[in-house]
Amino acid sequence: MARPKSTKGGKREYIQGLAKGLAVIEAFGAQAPSMTLTEVASRTKLSPASARRVLLTLEELGYVKAQDQRFGLQPRTLQLGYAYLSSLQLTGLAQPLLSQLTGEVDESSSIGVLDGNETVFIARASARRMTRDYMTVGMRYPSHATSVGKLLLALRPPEDAERLLSLAPLHSLTPKTITSRSALLKEFRLIRERGWAFNDQETMVGMRSIATPITADRQTVAALTVSAPITRYDENGIVHHLLPPLHQAAATLERLLAARSPAGAFSE
User: Fold this and answer.
1) pLDDT, tens digit, 9 for 90 and up, residues 208-250
2) What's the CATH code of the domain at 192?
3) CA distance 101 to 245
4) Which residues lie across from 225 on neighbouring strands?
5) Rounded CA separation 42/23 (Å)
6) Distance, CA of 241 to CA of 236 (rounded, Å)
7) Residue 266 lies in a domain
8) Alpha carbon of 186 to those of 49, 150, 174, 189: distances in Å?
């Protein structure tokens, strides 16, 4: 388990039990929606005895539930994510703008942030014609496979972007996902030059997207994106028809953040 940095007292301020509990919660996911005690211990690198104590504690608190010797997360864990989202002025300010943008262009729009080498989407407005959306608030994707992630990585210092890319293998989500480090670094240079990122079916087959940064306190804190089916827009069409309203929405959100956000509210 990776240990968070402590600003005071070093290891004396490190609560090992809390770290173990969070590691167990984070071990569950799409690839492991339920696990046995042995599987939890293996994924978290905890001893079976330690994993058992953590699971029983989380079960007592209502975060997990055991059934047929398998453990799974309970809805109470959503409170952890909701607490984060509700603490962000960005989310509250952005949702009405996302709804307005989606209504204007008739395409889905989202806001994402960088979390390590992953992109987490913190706000979403789906196009009305979509009967089943492939993305929801809280979803994570490898950053190299999304327009938001590529943009946010490209705007980091080059050495930082390369470090984040090295944290995990560059897996493909679709046949068009860029998985070559050199190709991604070349893409990042292009993104820095033009100030926006394009995604051509790299996250989802049949969907293209374009993203532009959101800044606050002179830092890029998130990215705003619009996605559209390939049957409606090619790359030139997206740039011509969707990028201008995307830029306008981002600029409006930045003005709201500047007026209402305290300094440092979006620092990492």
Assistant:
1) 999 999 988 788 989 999 999 999 999 999 999 999 999 999 9
2) 3.30.450.40
3) 7
4) 110, 211
5) 12
6) 8
7) no
8) 48, 11, 20, 5
Q: What share of the chain is helix, strand, coil (3-state, %, to 5)?
A: 45, 20, 30
Maximum average pLDDT range among 9-13, 16-20, 242-246: 242-246
Better-scored residue on pLDDT, 82 or 122: 122
At a CB cut-off of 8 Å and minimum separation 6, what does 57 contact? 21
Are 54 and 177 found together in one domain?
no
| Residue 16 identity | Q
| DSSP conformation class of 12 | G
Question: Is the domain of 122 the same as that of 43?
Answer: no
User: pTM, whole model, 2 decimals?
Assistant: 0.69
